Amino acid sequence: MQLIENIKFPFISGLTKPMTVRNTKLKRETIYWICQFAGWISITLLHFLIISSFQTLQWERIVNGFVFIIAGIGFTHFFRSVIKKRNWLTLPLGKIIPRVFLSSFVLGALIYGTVYGFSLIFDTMTKVNFTAIRPLIGILNSSGIALVWTLIYFSIHYLENYKKTEIESLIWEAAVKDYELKTLKTQLNPHFMFNAMNSIRALIEEDPENAKTALTKLSNILRYSLRMERAEKVPLEIEMETVKDYLALEKIRFEERLNYNFNIDSESARAEIPPMMIQTLVENGIKHGISKRTEGGEISISSKVDNSKLIIEIRNSGHLDEDALKSSKGFGVSNTKHRLNLLFGERASFKLFNENKETVLAKLIIPIGGE
Q1: Is the CB of residue 291 less than 8 Å from the CB of residue 298?
Q2: 335 within 8 A of 184, measured Cβ to Cβ
Q3: Structural domain contains residue 358
Q4: First-residue to last-residue Cα distance in the chain
């Protein structure tokens, strides 16, 4: 059954996409024509309602109203094809505005001219209405209606294009974010492998039994790394199991020169953090702090939850050279900050500083819950 579910049918996929596009276009065209008829009929009915409140509505006006509807729909539909053909929707606002006003006036003149010409030919207008000012007023009224139609049309497409651009921007941003996270993970794993294999190599000849134990610890860490390859976040308690394996491996190499302790609050155990982040900071603490001290040192990891934020503190013996930190890429500071920023934005923070002359503190603050 699982095999059947995993089978892909490219020919069906190829047919579905064009059908979806066609259905979308048909739906848009249907909505367009509904709006066209509804809009022009509504304007005409409103005109009839206003006229009937002052005088008797004659059949001639009804006929002219029908012609007005047909002319309005016909000329605006033709104008729509002109807009598409000349790509006016892609023009900057400064070029669109004069075209909108000029086109609205032309549309108004054509619509009213059609109604007026029909009235003259078929005698559907009383003689009293044949005045010099009448055409000018009619053209202005029709132009106003055409201007409203044009503004609505351009506004709808502007909002659609803006929304489409915004969606494309979000998709692109998500793709870049995903790519960067995967790139950062591939930077982490080789760095860890190099240091771990060096540790085991040092043990093979001196202490084969401990080397076997180290290989078991390493296999646990690698299994975790592979399992979390596609995970953006993992529970703290799962991450800590890997950190314990790593420290146990390093304990074999450093012996009494390395000590470590944990103070993980039970409430914070299930809070999620980026995978391999604590392990990387612990590794840095050993490499740049404890390993450089003849007497060795201690790694201390504590966590707590405060105001819906997970606070993790990693202390290691040593002293941080701030100038070296700025110029060196081996501390993993920029990597840690970048990952936190990609996943949590400004809601997360990371600091690495000298707590005192003998201790370096790495402090993580990560929001709990949400993306």
Answers
A1: no
A2: yes
A3: yes
A4: 34
Q: Where are the alpha helices (DSSP H) in the chain?
A: 2-6, 10-52, 59-85, 93-122, 133-204, 208-227, 236-254, 277-288, 322-327, 333-344
DSSP-derived 3-state class of residue 152: helix
Q: Is residue 174 part of a domain?
A: no
Task: State the residue range of the domain holding 116.
Answer: 2-167
Which of 141, 167, 193 is the last residue in one of the domains? 167
pTM above 0.85, yes or no: no
Instruction: Give pLDDT tens digits for 71-93.
Output: 999 999 999 999 988 888 888 88
Name the domain count of the chain: 2
Give me the residues paired with residue 289 across strands.
none
Residue-wise pLDDT for 181-210, tens only, equals 565 555 555 656 776 787 788 778 887 887
**For the segment 163-182, what is each residue's pLDDT rounded down to a tens digit?**
777 776 666 566 556 655 56
Segment 287-309 mean pLDDT: 92
CA 81 to chain centroid, in Å, comes to: 34
Question: Across all residues in the chain, what is the average pLDDT?
Answer: 80
> What's phi and psi for 366, nearest 5 deg?
-130, 130
Task: Answer yes or no: is 179 within a domain.
Answer: no
226/215 Cα distance (integer angstroms): 16
| Residues 360 and 353: beta-carbon distance below 8 Å | yes
Rg (CA), the chain: 37
Q: Which residue has the tokens 């039970």?
A: 266
Residues 350 and 251 in one domain: yes
Q: Which amino acid is at 195?
A: N
> What are phi and psi for residue 320, nearest 5 degrees?
-90, 120
* CATH (domain of 243): 3.30.565.10
How far apart CA 262 and CA 300 sit, in angstroms, is 6
77 vs 32: CA distance, rounded Å: 10
What is the spatial distance between Cα 209 and Cα 198, in angstroms, rounded to a whole number? Answer: 16
Of residues 129, 85, 137, the one with CA closest to residue 108? 137
Q: Supply the DSSP symbol for 291.
A: G
With tokens 């029908």, the residue in question is: 66
d(CA 171, CA 173): 5
- Quote the CA–CA distance of 170 and 197 in Å, as a whole number: 41
Residue 317 pairs with which residues in a beta bridge? 359
- Give which of 334, 319, 332 is closest to 276, Cα–Cα: 332
The β-bridge relationship of strands 349-354 and 272-273 is unpaired
